[in-house]
Please model this.
Amino acid sequence: MPRLAVIVVAAAIVFWIYTIVDCALFDRLRVRGLRKGWWVALVILVPVIGGVLWFLIGRGRRNRSGRSLAPDDDAEFLRRLGSDAEQEDRIRRLEQELADLDQEPETGDGRDSGAGHPSRGDSGPHDPEGPADPGQTGRPHD
Model:
């Protein structure tokens, strides 16, 4: 009989320590009944009964994360759809702006539209490293 009492007391101590740690580390937003600090005090002051009450009443259940929802019922899924559509629309607009800039013709009013720009790989008459006319030396004629 004394062995059984030692085993029961050891199990109660292990349960008490586990309950204190679980209660102290549990997410405070999921605690039910009392505030988290009151639950910790109850578990410490009333070891076995406080632990049982913690697991039956105070420890809230997980959110419905394990339960699958239909896509039209899932708010997170619907939010992502809205942001995905906005992002696709923004990408389409930016691609169109880039295409418009690439097709921009050279204007005749003296402004350079980018023709002959070294980053585009072509050289224009203003490019000093571009191919020059072999008959011209660049010096004024006498």
User: Anything to note?
Assistant: The chain has a mean pLDDT of 77. The CA atoms of residues 79 and 85 lie 10 Å apart. The first helix runs from residue 2 to 25. The chain has four helices and no strands.
